[in-house]
Amino acid sequence: MTGPIRHHGGQGPRGRRSQLARVSLKLMPKKAILVVGEGRETEPNYFRGLYGEQAVRDRFHVVIKKGIGFCASAAVNLAVREKGKGDYDQVYCVVDVEGIAHRDDLRSAITLARKHKINLILSNPCFEVWLLAHFERTCRSFADAAAAVQVLSAHSQRKCGKAYSKSDEQIYHLLKGFTEQALVNARTVREKDHNSGPVADCNSSTEVDKLVSLLLGK
């Protein structure tokens, strides 16, 4: 009597399919992505941590450049220079909207980014709004970056056991477990709470989820 057919070593139909998927993934050319942050610490620290994820490394080669921490137009100018040094498939510049006093500079940054085909990723008023989305969905208006940092730090202390610090090199890993919720919160705030209005005019909101979602393949 013939016994049941057994597939050894995971080489049955499912095993072969998953093996082929892994092989084809390895053979796929990686896209080269340049990410330039306005800040000198927080943005580069966050994206370096994100780039450590295997899901990102499997599909992208990401170059991360820190900014000079001055203004949005300075960050875009840096992105333009760095873009000219390499063969990148896409270039992203992560900048803060900040307050009304910076509006002319932001307009210049937006114009320059469009001219050089650089994807501008805005946070209003600051990058910490994206980090705050890991803990709550909020469209509250912040007077400045310090006000957003204060709320973020309270959440971080309560849920992660330590206050937020701009210089924390492990900021991505600290918040990693909340990333899925952050993606949902940031998108919902833009699309529902602010009716898909321009982030530059919507305090508070952020577009960082778009870049994170792209890199993680979400």
Would you mind describing this structure in some detail?
This protein is an alpha/beta fold. The protein has a single domain (28-216), classed as Rossmann fold. Helices cover 48% and strands 13% of the residues. The protein has helices at residues 13-27, 42-51, 54-57, 72-83, 103-115, 128-132, 145-160, 171-175, 179-193, 208-216; strands spanning 31-37, 60-65, 90-96, 119-124, 205-206. Strands 2-1-3-4-5 form a 5-stranded mixed β-sheet, sandwiched between helices. Strand 3, helix 5 and strand 4 form a beta-alpha-beta unit. The chain is globular. It starts with 12 loop residues before the first helix and ends with a helix. The relative contact order is 0.14. Residues 1-10 have low confidence and may be disordered.
The ordered string of helix (H) and strand (E) elements is: HEHHEHEHEHHHHEH
Which regions have little confidence, pLDDT < 50, spanning 5+ residues? 1-10
Q: How is the biggest beta sheet arranged?
A: 5 strands, mixed
* Number of helices in the DSSP assignment: 10
Q: So what's the overall shape?
A: globular
Oligomeric status: single chain
Descriptive tags:
Rossmann fold, alpha/beta, 218 residues, five-stranded mixed sheet, disordered N terminus
Short description:
This protein is α/β, with parallel strands linked by helices and 218 residues long.
What secondary-structure arrangement, pairings included, does this model have?
Blueprint (H helix, E strand, L loop, with lengths): L12 H15 L3 E7 L4 H10 L2 H4 L2 E6 L6 H12 L6 E7 L6 H13 L3 E6 L3 H5 L12 H16 L10 H5 L3 H15 L11 E2 L1 H9 L2
Parallel strand pairs: 1-2, 1-3, 3-4
Antiparallel strand pairs: 4-5
